[in-house]
Amino acid sequence: MPEAPSLYRRHRPRTFSQVVGQEHVVRTLRNAVQQNKVHHAYLFVGSRGTGKTSMAKILAACLNCENGPTVDPCGVCQSCIAIQNATSMDVIEMDAASNNSVDDIRDLRDRVSLAPVSGKSKVYILDEAHMLSSQAWNAFLKTLEEPPPNTIFVLATTEASKVLPTVVDRCHRFDFTRPTVGQLAQVVGRVAQEEHITIGDDAVALLARHATGSFRDALGTLEQMVTYSGTTITTEDVLAVLGIADADLLFGMMDAVASGDAAKTLRGCARLVNTGRDPMSFIRDLEAHARDLLVIQTLGEVPAEMRITTDRDQRIAAQAGRIGRAQVIRLLDLLAEAMRAVRDGADARTFLELALVKAAAPEVDPSTKAIAARLERLERAVNAGAGVSVAPPPITTPEPAPAAPEEPAGRFQRDPEPAPQPTAAATGAAAAVAAIPHPQVEVEPEPQEPVPAPPPPVPSVGMTLHDLLEVWPAVLDGVRERHALCAGLLSTAQPVALDAEMLTIAFPEDQEFLRRKAENPDMRVCLSEAMRAVTGASPQITYELRDFAAAAEAAGTPPPVPETGPEFIEKLMAAFDAEEIRPEDDAPKET
C-alpha cells in the first residue's frame, strides 16, 4: 500500500486563486500568462516555506494545461496530474545543493535543447540556486540568457546575495514575503477542516506562531500533532509536543517583573523546568511576548498581524497598559544578553533567572541603581521647590587653551619699574640699522593643540556624599568607557567631600604622582562628563592627598586596606605602559 503524501504536499496550492498572500507575485504572473508575455527566466527569493516551488509549479501548470495557456489550470488533465505528482517530463525539478558541479550544469544544458514531450513548454525549476558554484554559473550563463523557444527557468533561493549579479540581471526577480500569523492560522484552519481534524482556536494560534512564517512548517507541525493525539487536538497537546510556554506562564512572568516580585519569577522558572520544558525556548517565547507588548505600547493598539483570538488580544492589550515601556525595553535587553551567553556555552536556566531577577529588582544592577538615584534626587529637588536646570550635552568641539591666570593681588606684588630711556647714540644707531633694507621673513607660529574645556559646572542639587559614594562605581564605569588611564588613576582615590559647587577627591598621601596626573585637563573633562551622565551634576573638582589610615583611626573605623601585591603592580604597568627594571639589569656584567 503506497504511503499517503504529507499534509503540505496534499494541500499545496494548485492555482493562483488558492495562494494565500504573495499578491504581487500572483498578479504579475497571472497578467503575464494572459498577455502571453511570460519571461524566459524568473528568480524567486524568499525564506523557506513561503511558496516559491508551489508558485513555480502553478506557472508550469498554467502553461502546459490542455486548456492552456490559462490562469486557471483544470487540475484533471494528464499534464496537470503529472505536474502535481512530479512525474511530468516537461517540468524538471533540480536541487542545486546536490547538483552544483560544472558537469551537472553541462548535462542540464544538453537536455535544454530537447523539445517538450507532451506539453507546450519546458519548465526547469532549480531549487537552492545559490548553491551553484561560480564555474557552474559561468557554464550556464549563455543558456540562461538565450534559451531555446518555449523553455522557462525558475530559480528559487533563500539567499539572493549569493547569486551572481550577472544571473540576477537575466531574470525577473520576485521577493516572497513571510506570511503573517493570521495567514498561517487561516491555512492551518482550512486544512484541519478538510482533514476532519478538531482543533481549537488557541491551538491553531500556537501552531501558527511556532511556524515562524513558514506554511510548510505549520502544516508539518499539524501532521505531527495528528500523529500524537489523533484527530482531536487540544492546546495542552500542542504545548506538550512543541515544548513552548503557555500563555498563562508568559503573562504571569511579565506581571511578576512589573510588580518587582523577583521571588515569583524564580518560582516560575522552577515550575517551567519541572515540566520538562527547555529554558532557551522559554527565553525566545518571553522575548516574543515582550516584543508584542512594546509594539502595542508604541502603537496604542493591537496591530492586525498580532491578532490571534479576541480573549488573548484583550489580555495582552490590558497588560501593555499596566507595564511601563522602560521595563519592557530593559527586559528585552536582558533576554538578548542571556541568549548570547547561552550561545557561548552558559547554562540557560541560570541566565534566564539572572535576566528575570535583574528585570524585577533593578537595584541589584549598579548602572540602573545610578539612574534610579538620579531620578530620586531630581524628584526630591522638585518636591522641595528648587529650580533645577537640565544642562545641555557637553560640547565636544575643542576650544583654545585658556589664558594664563593673572597673579593674584597681595602675593609677591611690587611696583612696576619705569622703562629705560634710550640715549642719543643708541637712537642714532637704531635709525641707521633701520635704514638698511632687510628681507621679510614670515615665521609661522607653532600649532598648539587645543585643550578641551570641561563642561560648565552643574550644581549637585540635593545630592549628598553618601549618594555619590553609592553610585561611584557607575561613575568609574563611565570614565572607563571614555578614558581607561583616567579610570585606573581614580580607582586608587575616593570622594571625601561634596557641597553644592565643589567635589573633593582624595588620593593616598604617598600618591602625589597620581594626583598630578589626574589634574590633566583631558582627565578632568572625562570625569565631569561621566559625573553628568550618571548623576546629572558636574561640580567643580579638586584633588588632595589624605592619610586615610589616620582619618579612619580618628573616626573609629578600620582603615581601608591599600591595594598592593603583584596584581596591583601589573595594573599600574598596564595603565602607564611601563616595564619593570630589576636591579640585576643595571649591574655591570662580568667580563
From TrEMBL:
It is an enzyme of class 2 (transferase). Residues 38-180 form the AAA+ ATPase domain. Residues 422-432 have a biased composition (Low complexity). Belongs to the DnaX/STICHEL family. Its EC number is 2.7.7.7. CDD domains: AAA, HLD_clamp_pol_III_gamma_tau. It comes from the Bacteria. It catalyses: DNA(n) + a 2'-deoxyribonucleoside 5'-triphosphate = DNA(n+1) + diphosphate. The keyword Nucleotide-binding applies. This is DNA polymerase III subunit gamma/tau. Residues 408-417 have a biased composition (Basic and acidic residues). Transmembrane segments: none annotated. DNA polymerase III contains a core (composed of alpha, epsilon and theta chains) that associates with a tau subunit. This core dimerizes to form the POLIII' complex. PolIII' associates with the gamma complex (composed of gamma, delta, delta', psi and chi chains) and with the beta chain to form the complete DNA polymerase III complex. Residues 391-405 have a biased composition (Pro residues). One of its GO terms (molecular function) is DNA-directed DNA polymerase activity. NCBIfam families: dnaX_nterm (TIGR02397), holA (TIGR01128), PRK05563.1 (NF004046). It holds the Pfam family DNA_pol3_delta2. InterPro entries: AAA+_ATPase, DNA_pol3_clamp-load_cplx_C, DNA_pol_III_gamma-3, DNA_pol_III_sug/sutau_N, DNA_polIII_delta, DNA_Rep/Repair_Clamp_Loader, DnaX-like_C, HLD_clamp_pol_III_gamma_tau.
